[in-house]
């Protein structure tokens, strides 16, 4: 059996897979936090302001969207990095980090508003 091109960079490919799985875990955690907030909000039925229901819904929707964006971009990032490792043309993922960071900041602002108004 001949070694493949991937076998020349085994450690880099394994690191790429670990990074991919970390992004997936993070995306699933973000989705879970959104569901948790929405579930707790609507199961307690203690809306103190008319805006808290809307904020809870926005947090749930945004968390699912951020999670889906994270999963999609993590998968695209993984495939690109695999090719870049084999071609020795690695470039860091600046855009993905800024996108996810911006969306997370938006979600934290919504959390703050929700807990401040609730």
UniProtKB/TrEMBL annotation:
Topology relative to the membrane: Multi-pass membrane protein
Q: Which UniProt keywords apply?
A: Cell membrane, Membrane, Transmembrane, Transmembrane helix
Q: Where is the DUF202 domain?
A: 12-82
Main localization of the protein described in the UniProt heading:
membrane
Please tell me one Gene Ontology term that the record gives under cellular component: plasma membrane
Q: Where in the cell is it found?
A: Cell membrane
Write one Pfam family the protein is assigned to: DUF202
The source's superkingdom equals Bacteria
User: InterPro entries this protein is in?
Assistant: DUF202 (IPR003807), IM_YidH-like (IPR052053)
Report the transmembrane regions from the record: 20-38, 58-76, 96-117
Name of the protein in its database record: DUF202 domain-containing protein
């Amino acid at each position: 059996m001949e070694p493949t091109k991937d076998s020349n960079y085994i450690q880099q490919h394994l690191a790429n897979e670990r990074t991919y799985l970390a992004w997936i875990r993070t995306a699933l955690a973000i989705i879970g936090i959104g569901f948790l907030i929405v579930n707790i909000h609507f199961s307690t039925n203690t809306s103190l302001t008319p805006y808290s229901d809307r904020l809870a819904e926005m947090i749930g929707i945004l968390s699912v969207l951020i999670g889906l964006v994270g999963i999609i971009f993590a998968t695209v990032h993984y495939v690109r990095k695999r090719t870049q490792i084999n071609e020795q043309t690695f470039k860091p993922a600046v855009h993905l980090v800024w996108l996810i960071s911006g969306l997370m900041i938006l979600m934290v602002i919504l959390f703050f508003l929700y807990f401040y108004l609730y």
